[in-house]
Write a structure and sequence with these properties.
Length: 203
């Protein structure tokens, strides 16, 4: 019993002459530790709307809705649900679409809706069946990443055609008629519709 009492006395004396471990926040600004992750910050100009961050977010803070008629993808980030885990930054395909602030931590508010941020991205939809393919920015990000290898995918023919003019305007401006034909390979088609053309060519 004697030694514990002495130890507590020693701790009391030491704490009298050392600075406090806690800060006086919110009365004084708090500076987080260097390794603190903090609230993620979105850079819309660098985000291509690929959905990767939505798929890896463990708390469901990032949701996505696609409007195939208006051709708009809406990405909603509810930072009220964010746990500052950093998965969105770690897996962002552009590495710049969302980055951790390392400083922002105080999100307390009486208005939860103020913690929600939205982005809108133009969608590419299949010209034949209307299925969502991806966003325009995501598609161009993939083309730039692949370089000349982009030629290996028939899905890229339309976009490459706008740069190289392989097919004339009259061939690509008429909408698909009854059934897909060979000329429709120069359209934006989902993999299923593109496969239908290829199967026809093989038969
Ligand atoms: S930091 Fe984690 S919880 Fe927050 S949005 Fe990114 S992935 Fe989701
Ligand atoms: S992973 Fe990056 S580029 Fe893709 S939607 Fe998220 S922030 Fe944007």
């Amino acid at each position: 019993m004697r030694y514990p009492k002495l130890r507590e006395l020693k701790e009391a004396i030491v704490s009298l002459v050392t600075p406090p471990a806690t800060t006086k926040f919110p009365y004084k600004p708090h500076v987080p530790a260097p390794a603190f992750r903090g609230k993620p910050v979105v850079n819309d100009a660098e985000c291509v709307g690929c959905l990767t961050c939505s798929n890896v977010c463990p708390s469901g803070a990032i949701t996505v809705s696609d409007d195939a008629v208006q051709k708009i993808r809406t990405i909603t980030r509810d930072f009220g649900k964010c746990i500052f885990c950093g998965q969105c930054e770690a897996y962002c395909i552009t590495a710049k679409g969302v980055v951790l602030s390392h400083t922002i931590f105080d999100l307390s508010t009486f208005h939860k809706e103020s913690l929600t941020e939205q982005q809108h991205k133009e969608l590419i939809v299949c010209e034949h069946c209307g299925s969502v393919i991806t966003t325009r920015e995501h598609l161009h990000f993939i083309y730039d990443k692949l370089g000349t290898k982009a030629w290996s995918s028939l899905l890229t023919l339309r976009a490459l055609n706008t740069r190289l003019q392989l097919a004339g305007e009259e061939e690509t401006s008429t909408p698909p008629g009854d059934g897909l034909r060979r000329k429709d390979m120069f359209r934006i088609l989902c993999p299923n519709c593109m496969r239908n053309i290829q199967v026809k060519l093989l038969l």
